[in-house]
Amino acid sequence: MSTVPVALAGRGYDVRVGSGLLADIAAQCGPLLRKPAVPIVTDAHVAPLWQDAIDASLAAAGKRARWLVLPAGEATKDWAHLEEVCDFLLAEGVDRGDHILALGGGVIGDLTGFATSVLKRGCGFVQLPTSLLAQVDSSVGGKTAINTRAGKNLIGAFHQPALVLADIGALATLPPRELRAGYAEVVKYGLIDDPAFFAWCEANGAALLAGDEDLRAEAVRRSVEAKARVVAADERETTGTRALLNLGHTFGHALEAECGYDGTLLHGEAVAMGMVLAARYSVRRGEMAGQDAERIAAHFRAMDMRAELPQLNLSCDGRTLANHMLHDKKMDAGTLPFLLMRGIGQAWLAKDVALDDVARFLDEQLAR
Ligand SMILES: NC(=O)c1ccc[n+]([C@@H]2O[C@H](COP(=O)([O-])OP(=O)(O)OC[C@H]3O[C@@H](n4cnc5c(N)ncnc54)[C@H](O)[C@@H]3O)[C@@H](O)[C@H]2O)c1
Ligand SMILES: O=C(O)C(=O)C[C@@H](O)[C@H](O)[C@H](O)COP(=O)(O)O
Ligand SMILES: [Zn+2]
What we know:
Layout: E1 2-6, E2 13-18, H1 25-29, E3 37-43, H2 47-60, E4 64-70, H3 79-91, E5 99-104, H4 106-118, E6 124-129, H5 132-138, E7 143-148, E8 151-158, E9 163-167, H6 176-193, H7 195-210, H8 213-233, H9 249-259, H10 267-284, H11 290-302, H12 318-324, E10 338-341, E11 347-350, H13 355-366
Parallel strand pairs: 2-9, 3-4, 3-5, 5-6, 6-9
Antiparallel strand pairs: 1-2, 7-8, 10-11
């Protein structure tokens, strides 16, 4: 097992990466679980996989799990399910010093994290990420949120977990499409500032996706180390450093909003396509070599992932997609800071991007 600390003054915590962590949940959480009853929020895919092992570990420690099982999928990150989680936690008599367990992918982590940020003005929670995406990204760093009709993550809070347990063994049951979606956020760390890690992905991505647990553990550890460094430097995305983690997301969130949150386009799939678009837009501005951008698209294609906009069969134009970007949380007094690339591993935040130009670029990409 490896442990990655997230160094935040007064709110620091560990991310443990290893196998067997979930079946050992009571010991792993230790004193964070203060009461005999332990509220756990999860989804309908994950519950049958882990309920027995977690119940057994808690029972051996004299505790009893209290489960809330929500529908699986992005549509659960909404107002109605936020209300359901809050009502459940209130009915369970949760106090501010308690820790709620969030077991599942990024949807359960973001939703439960947000509920715990507002419950009694803030109680504790532990992230138990079971998808690759949640292990490498969403469980770390304290961004919590729900979606609204206007777009992704528009209602939320920064609320750090007290502990993250990334059990690599959990990934064995993850469907291949979900693995690939999570893999996009792994590749992101290479594209931001670590060209050697991108090359590692090119060399090892296929074996990782095929099931190699050592490679999965290495990818999770290296991703979490990268994210922890950024979060420690700029927890609340105020200096521009944390915005780097948004590479591919301005395009990606616009694609997700256009597709709806019905599973047509998964978050990680949108981010993969968004990073290809950010790279090609950087080329169009004369700031990145075309061969670098095509190397990124080629890697996603080689991993059996969609990299081209026409593969989404959208019926909208570039302007419609660009209009979704007006809801981007980086929007600042009428301008949208945009994550672009000068090369692989050289992401930067541009402040001179005009959405009219982005709309024209998207029309070109839609017609490719
Ligand atoms: N907070 C952040 O910093 C951050 C970062 C990245 C993404 N996100 C958010 O995370 C969400 C996407 O997360 P996700 O990709 O994990 O989606 P998800 O939570 O929907 O999980 C993906 C699917 O895999 C299933 N699943 C999860 N673990 C499984 C397992 N071990 N075995 C079998 N099935 C399993 C889930 O039930 C679901 O159907 C998006 O809402 C995105 O906006 C947040
Ligand atoms: O942790 C961050 O910061 C990120 O941007 C990570 C992203 O992968 C994640 O999708 C995040 O939820 C997007 O944040 P948002 O502020 O654009 O909603
Ligand atoms: Zn993301």
